[in-house]
Design goal:
single chain, 347 residues, alpha/beta, Elongation Factor Tu (Ef-tu), domain 3, Rossmann fold, Ubiquitin-like (UB roll), 3 domains, five-stranded parallel β-sheet, 32% strand
Length: 347
């Protein structure tokens, strides 16, 4: 029966399942309902600083409990487009069990395509979230751990500390780098000092304190966990390698186009069923059809959203207005999108 349903969906409705085709109808009764996504309701927005805020979301009950350190993809609809970005959950699983809600801490960028709109979300409005993702979690076997955070990279460590038991014997030292007077959630870190007897932290900035290496006690470090920009990870990796200290990391790196937008070029697309080399002179949909890749599509004009997929990595160009994406995860429509860099897509 499932095979028959799948055949009808793919061949008659150009969608992977029937529920996706009836999405607009279902949304009348369930706002923000989308096939393959979870819904979450906005329950609070709190300003933390001039360019950062905390948003509290209440996921629907079928959303699975996360592990501290994991992240989610958050999707909102803006000007008729679905835009997604990845954020680490800053609250632990304990809060989800007790209150049914999770927290995200988000830095805003005035010229961003996503974060400026999050602070404008109405209370009790609905957004979409993915299942919890990632393996950047605390190792319970480690007795002496150093956390190294850069900027908003503090968020997974807040969640890990939040889930630790008050009588834990784990020794954790946090080195938190940010621009002067830009450290986030310092009050929360100070509260951890009273609850976790073996926790300590230092607020640092690169211009005044330099490298983190002078603040690491090699004799009392079983492992270093790093969350921050690419440069921080590279430095930490070299430090740990030379001293044979285990390292685990979540790091982020900005990617820029390697070719002029108007210059003909070919890019590699990593798909969930193999890689493909394509041209940047036509839409992704046209390129996939040229290479006989099975793709769901409908109007081919960017209206029906049936050819949308998840861009995991890379930069693309919207052929309707010329707008370039960033490197973050988001939903794109294959029929109105061109490659600008190498891509990773989930069809």
């Amino acid at each position: 029966m499932q095979n028959i349903s799948r055949f009808i969906s793919n061949n008659l409705f150009h969608h992977s399942d029937l529920s996706g085709y009836f999405e607009p109808v279902i949304q009348v009764f369930k706002p923000a309902w989308r096939s393959g996504f979870y819904r979450a309701q906005v329950k609070g927005i709190r300003v933390l600083s001039e360019n950062a805020f905390k948003i509290t979301l209440k996921p629907e009950k079928k959303w699975q409990i996360h592990t501290a350190g994991q992240h989610i993809s958050l999707t909102i609809e803006q000007q008729g487009r679905l835009i997604s970005r990845v954020f680490t959950i800053v609250s632990g699983a304990k809060k989800l069990k007790e209150t049914g809600s999770i927290d995200l801490v988000i830095r805003t960028h005035d010229k961003g395509n996503f974060t400026p709109y999050l602070g404008e979300l109405a209370m009790n409005s609905w957004v979409n979230i993915s299942e919890p993702m990632g393996k950047f979690i605390f190792d319970e076997l480690s007795n002496h751990t150093t956390f190294l955070a850069g900027g908003s990279g503090i968020t997974p460590f807040i969640a890990m500390l939040d889930d630790l038991q008050e009588n834990t014997q784990k020794h954790i030292h946090l080195l938190y780098y940010a621009k002067p007077n830009s450290h986030l959630m310092v009050d929360v870190l100070e509260n951890f000092l009273t609850r976790l007897p073996n926790f300590s932290f230092e607020l640092l900035n690169r211009s005044e304190h330099g490298s983190f290496s002078k603040f690491v006690s090699i004799e009392h470090t079983d492992e270093i966990l790093v969350c921050g920009p690419q440069e921080m990870y590279v430095e930490a990796e070299e430090f740990c390698k030379s001293r044979q200290i285990p390292i685990r990391a979540e790091h982020f790196q900005a990617i820029k186009p390697t070719k002029s937008i108007n210059e003909a070029a070919r890019f590699r697309v990593k798909l969930n069923h193999g890689d493909l080399e394509i041209s940047n002179q036509d839409s992704l949909l046209s390129e996939f059809q040229l290479h006989n890749k099975p793709v769901t599509y409908g109007c081919c004009m960017g209206i029906c959203h049936q050819c949308q997929c998840v861009k995991k990595k890379g930069i693309v160009r919207d052929m309707r207005d010329g707008r370039l994406s960033d490197n973050s995860e988001e939903l794109i429509q294959l029929c109105v999108t061109q490659a600008v860099t190498d891509l990773e897509l989930e069809l």
